[in-house]
Structure formats: C-alpha cells, structure tokens
Amino acid sequence: MTPSRSNSPPPSGAAQARPHHFGEDCILVLQGGGALGAYQAGVFESLSKVYREPTWVAGISIGSINAALITGNPAHLRVAKLREFWDIVSSSHQPPALSSSVRESWNEASAAQGMLFGVPGFFSPRFPPAPFQPRGTLEAISYYDTAPLQQTLDRLVDFDLINSGSVRLSVGAVNVRTGNFEYFDSDKQRIDARHIMASGALPPGFAPVEIDGEHYWDGGLVSNTPLQYVLDQPGKRHRVVFQVDLFAATGALPTTLAEVTEREKDIRFSSRTRLNTTNELDRQVIAQAAQRLIAKLPPELRNDPDVHALSRVRSESAVDVVHLIYRSKHYESQSKDYEFSRLSMQEHWDAGRADMAHTLHDPRWIRHERSATGVHVFDLTADKPFAT
Prior knowledge:
single chain, alpha/beta, two-stranded antiparallel sheet, 13 helices
C-alpha cells in the first residue's frame, strides 16, 4: 500500500473527466497565499463542472475567504461570486503587452500601490497610522483596517446557508494568547464573518479578530494548509481531497537577494502535503494491522487493556489526495502574494482553471481504481508545460 504519485507524461488520446461518485466525499482544501488565491478560484471553476457539490471546504487565510464564497452560495452562483470578489479586490487597470523585465517592475509598482493605498473591498490604511493610535488598542497593532472585507463578506456570503449544514466549512486560526491552532467548523459551531476574517488576520498588517473573548490571527502562522485537520476527522466514505497550494515547496537555488526573499517565503508557506499524507498512510497501515492482529487473538486476551488501546486506533476508508500547486512565473517576485492587479489576478485564475482541467482529464486520474484502504497522492501538473 503506497501513495500514487505519478509524474510521467499522461498517455496520449482524449479522455473524459472521471465522474463524481455519490458514494464518496469531495473535499476542497485551500492554502493561504493572498493575491495568489485567484488560482484557487480558477481551480474551483473547472472542478465544479465535474464535482458540482463539494461535501466539505476547508481553508486558511485567503483560502478561508474562497471557502466561504463557495459554501456560502448555492451551486449555480459560486463561480460568479468568486469572480465578483476577485474583480472587486483587483485593480481594473490593464497595461499593454509588457516584456518580462518590464512586467516584473510593473508588478512591483502594483504591489507598492496596494501597500500604500490598500485594496478595494479588502483593507485600507489606518489613519492616523498605528504608531499614533492609543496604546493597547487593536488599531495600535496593525497597519490596515479590514472593515471593507467584512462588508464584502456580508454582501457576498450567505452565512445562514453555511450554517444550514449543506456543505461543511472549516477555517483555521491561531489564538494570540495561547499560541494554539484552532479550527472553526460549521459542523461544530455557528460561523460568521468574524471566523473568516480571523483566519486571514495576518500580523502586523491586520489586527487580530475577537471571538468569544479570545483574539485570533491568521492560521498560516502555524500551518498554511488545513489538510491534516481534514485527514484527522473521522469518516466512513471514500474521500477525494483536492489540495490547492499557492506556494511551491520545490524550487531553484536563488541567484539574487530578491530571489532569496521569494524562495524563503515559498518554503515557509508551502504545505507539508507529502509529510501529512505519509503520516496518514503509516497510521492507516498500523491501524489495519492492529485490527487483523486482534482478530487472531484467543478470546481470553480480547479484554486485555493493550488490546482495547489498539482497537481504538481508527482505520478509515481510503483517501485520494489530488494535489494542485501554483507555480510562479519567472517575472513574479516576493510581492506576488500582495500584488492584486487585474492582470495578475486573471493569470492566476486562468492557471488554476487550466491545471484543474488538465488533472480531471488526465488518464492516470481517470483510470485510478478506488480502493477500500490506503492514501493515494496525485500531482498531475508537475510535468505540464505552462506559459511564462
């Protein structure tokens, strides 16, 4: 029982996307990554054509915003609401065709504009600035006001629909006081805009969000992906998990200080998908071996405390993890996660849409036979050429 990670080119010939089986859970896992989150929206646009109704969406930071837009709208409006959000937060200015060297400078200027003047529908600079705010206030410990984001969420997301339980929503945040990671889960509590904003409250840009007397920061401070949380939750049906990452763990050795900053950010915020799935695989192997061993024991040993302890180790049904990773274009720099231009947003969206379509129609995914046990990991876009 080994993970399936296929990186060889797919066989030639057209193939139909593998249909969604009603006996399986479709779970979307969305990493944090700021402006790169438009990639996740593009992924969902392609995914929704085959897996029309996800069972569960989990997110961190910008992933939690996309998750709320998906779960907080009926199926026929989800892509439109994602598009509306990303149109709001991206600049409408479209430059003419630019060379790669000029494009890098243009991106940096666009990112600087967002830092100075804020992002529409998302955040605005505090005035007076934080150093001039009263000590001990939330305004004194953050550069930007996220009231525009709350207004955007209240307008675009139906939180009553989220709390109806039709599609599960989980978002991760960090308790500022304890340093502990916490998930807000619609299966366990009522969700509102505060929980989404807490998951994306990255310091020192944004202030922590107060919920029930505690203050929370961006979940990416501890873990930038909710994958482990999803895998840790009990489930009896076959799971298909689409893990969408915005920072690539692998990359080239930097050649400039600017590239060092970008590479450091990629490593710091990339998910630990391989580690998480390997750990889950090992756990399932142990759990299944324990169940087989218990079945072989004579009756007089069945009540032994060690046997009871082994019997409590969960043995879940099979999990397929389909991994999609945004891979930066060579003119993108360390500012890529806060560069909100309309041009970059559309490029990210298009890349996500193309990568998901490529994956869903890849024969290696279509021909994969569902098994009763095990964790199988697919990264089917690693060898896919993409435009630079």
